[in-house]
Amino acid sequence: MRDYKVVVLGAGGVGKSSVTVQFVQGVYVESYDPTIEDSYRKQIEIDGRACDLEILDTAGVAQFTAMRELYIKSGKGFLLVYSVTDENSLKELLALREQVLRIKDSDNVPMVLIGNKCDLKDDRVLSIEDGIKVSQDWGCVPFYETSAMYKTNVDESFIDVVRQIMRKEAAINAEKKQQKQLQKQNALENSGVNASENTKDINDDTDKSAKTSRNKQNSSNGEFEDGKEKSGSKCCVIM
Ligand SMILES: Nc1nc2c(ncn2[C@@H]2O[C@H](COP(=O)(O)OP(=O)(O)OP(=O)(O)O)[C@@H](O)[C@H]2O)c(=O)[nH]1
Ligand SMILES: [Mg+2]
């Protein structure tokens, strides 16, 4: 079973714990108890693959955020949560995302943008378009409006980020395999032993293994086709 470490980030009180507990335990927590740090495990099957999710529900309240750098380092995917009833919570996410990209030293980090509390229609101050705009500014990061209270788009958000982690890992593994083949090919060429025959064999092998790897990806999650990645995540998914 593969391990997937997902980190839930966002300002205080936006509903990180409520969303997480809804996903893991299927219950809604009405009371507000600021989190210091909570870790959950959940096993689910995604696209036919058994996944062991470790979910880190983090602190949003400033005095508890000292550990942030450490858990961003160890996380593979991120749920960035704001509340549609709190304008500042979306602003805070901009800096949080920058921090994630800086610590990960990459622009390609599995993440979803979540606008929570979408059931609170009278208290809403941020529109769906506000969320879509941020998602687009972030290079079309998948965006979901969620309600932890009604379990709206909660499972979908977690599954989306795990799928992104899977796709990233598959791409890294394919690249590693290709590099190994190239090294093997170079070593044979340098040894000068019947180089042209061997190279032909290896090229054939590379072709076959690339095809097999593509086929595997097609049959398991349909994310790759003809060696090109299909966009599995919609740019913006809203309730
Ligand atoms: N109506 C409504 N209330 C919500 C929703 N999600 C969370 N809440 C409420 O908002 C309050 C804060 O929720 P938490 O999940 O504790 O927020 P948090 O982001 O974990 O807060 P910190 O741990 O302090 O960072 C609680 O009273 C929740 O019941 C939602 O989707 N709809
Ligand atoms: Mg919390």
TrEMBL record:
Annotated stretches, region: Disordered: 177-239
SUPFAM superfamilies registered for this protein in UniProt: P-loop containing nucleoside triphosphate hydrolases
Entry keyword tRNA processing: no
Biased composition (Basic and acidic residues): 198-210
Keywords from the named record: GTP-binding, Nucleotide-binding
Gene3D superfamilies the UniProt entry points to: P-loop containing nucleotide triphosphate hydrolases
UniProt biased composition (Low complexity): 180-189
Organism superkingdom: Eukaryota
PANTHER family: RAS, DI-RAS, AND RHEB FAMILY MEMBERS OF SMALL GTPASE SUPERFAMILY (PTHR24070)
NCBIfam families recorded: small_GTP
Protein name (record): Ras-related protein Rsr1p
